Amino acid sequence: MKTRIKELRARYDLTQEDLAKKIGVRRETILFIEKGRYNPSIKLAHDIAKALQTTIDELFIFDEE
Amino acid sequence: MNQETVNRLWLAVTAAVSLIGFVIFGMILGGSPLGWDVHVVLASGVFAVLLATGCASLWAVWRKRQDRKAGYPVKDEMTTILEGRAAYYTVLISGYFMLVLLWYTWLANNLLELPAPNAPQVLIASILANAIIFAGLRWYFMRKGDAP
Fold it and tell me: What residues does each domain of chain A span?
């Protein structure tokens, strides 16, 4: 699974720390999600999408394989 | 000072304190380091491990306080899931370890002339193995994440 979190963070000029604080998670969690090393729950995916003013569909790119 | 530098500094302090503790304790017990026997080295080694554990615990508490001050939660969804996974594997591995220990104790007591551990030794070994396995697995999962 790939994400557009980094791209959208850059658009809103947010660091990983800013985003983590906004959602109420640890910095490592954002880092891991960005790198595809952690699959977030629907709730967390929703919170991230909301913080970045987008939808889950737009934020996460699922490989068909 | 960034987090990485602080972590390295803590590691250096922990190593230095443990080493100094090892040497001083060894010198109190056995005099000059050249004359130390196995028991002095072991006793000093255990003392150094105690110091290192103390330093590491202080560091963990300090980091948690810093995170809390900065507005981050100490635990979140990811840490809870990964710690849970570490705990699950710890139970499995520790169970196997205890089975091996049971087998060895039974063998030592009944069939072979091996040094048999007594109850406190078995208990301490089991608890230590449990703690070490959990710490190792937690560290591993926190680095790896949950990706396949």
Answer: 2-61
